[in-house]
Design goal:
Elements lengths: L2 H36 L15 H11 L10 H18 L9 E3 L2 E3 L9 H11 L2 H8 L4 H32 L4 H11 L2 H4 L1 H17 L24 H26 L8 H24 L5 H28 L1
Antiparallel strand pairs: 1-2
Helix pairs in contact: 1-2, 1-10, 1-11, 2-10, 3-4, 3-5, 3-10, 5-6, 6-9, 6-12, 7-10, 9-10, 9-12, 10-11
Pfam families: NADHdh
GO molecular function: NADH dehydrogenase (quinone) (non-electrogenic) activity
Protein name: NADH-quinone oxidoreductase subunit H
Length: 330
């Protein structure tokens, strides 16, 4: 194997880990500021100019706070659960092309860690494994409320994985590939999937709705419901173990935003600088929409969420797949 390829891959892995770990911290700042603006508050203001050092303060707090492991918990599983959440989020990033390829000092860089021919399937599989983090964390906590939260979260994740998979079947049938690079190239030649095909638009809306459940965001924030006294499956966690759950959530928001932008909204287009900037703006919009929704919508009840999934979204997704198949036959 080429030494340059190995070095390039290792550098890309380190860059993705550092950049998106930092973005998770900045994401908390942006979320506080956006929510404060929409709710006519100031948000962080007293730690540094405009509260910008609040990010550093939060990081120092998480790294230095005492790591408490309560008595009665299943120690090994309790400790490994946060790692699963963060690790699976970053593993999903391996098949995502974050930018078009570019040349620097005569060397062509491909901003994707692994262009596997089953890229979208790999991403969905890894993100699905991420549900074991909250589930095992709640089950190992020796706390019945954490267990209930974990079971509720697992039911939501599994249900909406079905909708996510069915929503992606339509673009897969149209393009005939599982590689995100092929998704980008097809749309550069034929137009954005969400608008060039009526069935693609329906799939886009279904996937977007399911993304809120996949990331545990409002109005589907039932994994650790803010309206409850406790913090769901994370109640017994402290310090950086709790922080790993947090980093995993925000990293998932960024990564699923990239997937939506690449699969349904044309990705980076023809690979120019403007195309790369366009991709980043699409991702920024989706991330902002996650924050906007939290400020504007209340959480739904678990029964309402499951009703929406099994009686509305899944039948609509199945019909959309069938219609797409019939149209492609003729």
């Amino acid at each position: 194997m080429d030494t340059a390829f190995i070095i390039e891959t290792l550098v890309k892995i380190v860059v993705v880990l550092l950049v998106f770990s930092a973005l998770a911290g900045f994401g908390t700042y942006f979320e506080r500021k956006v929510l404060a603006f929409m709710q006519r508050r100031l948000g962080p203001m007293h730690v540094g100019p405009y509260g910008l050092l609040q990010i550093a303060a939060d990081g120092i707090k998480l790294f230095t706070k005492e790591d408490i492991v309560p008595s009665g918990v299943v120690g090994p599983i309790f400790k490994i659960a946060p790692v699963i959440t963060a690790a699976t989020a970053f593993m999903a990033a391996a098949a995502i092309p974050f930018l078009p390829e570019f040349t620097i000092f005569g060397y062509t860089v491909h901003p994707i860690i692994a262009d596997v021919n089953i890229g979208i399937l790999y991403i969905l599989g890894v993100m699905a494994i991420g549900l074991y983090g909250p589930l095992l964390g709640g089950m190992a906590s020796n706390n019945k409320w954490s267990l209930i939260s974990a079971a509720r979260g697992a039911a939501i994740f599994i249900s909406y994985e079905v909708v996510t998979g069915l929503a992606l079947l339509v673009p897969l049938m149209i393009i005939g590939s599982l590689s995100l690079l092929d998704f980008n190239e097809y749309q550069a030649a034929n137009g954005w999937m969400a608008f060039a095909h009526p069935m693609g638009f329906i799939s886009f809306i279904l996937f977007w709705i399911a993304a809120f459940a996949e990331t545990g965001r409002t109005p589907f924030h039932l994994v650790a419901n803010d309206h409850e006294i406790i913090d769901g499956f994370g109640t017994e966690y402290s310090g950086m173990r709790w922080g790993l759950f947090f980093i995993g959530e925000y990293a998932n928001m960024f990564f699923i935003s990239f997937v939506m932008a690449i699969v349904f909204l044309g990705g980076y287009g023809d690979g120019t600088v403007m195309g790369a900037l366009g991709l980043l703006l699409k991702v920024a919009f989706f991330f902002f929409f996650f924050l906007w929704t939290r400020a504007a919508w209340p959480d739904v009840r678990p029964d309402q969420l499951m009703w929406l999934c099994w009686k509305v979204l899944m039948p609509l997704a199945v019909i959309n797949v069938v219609v797409t198949g019939i149209v492609m036959m003729f």
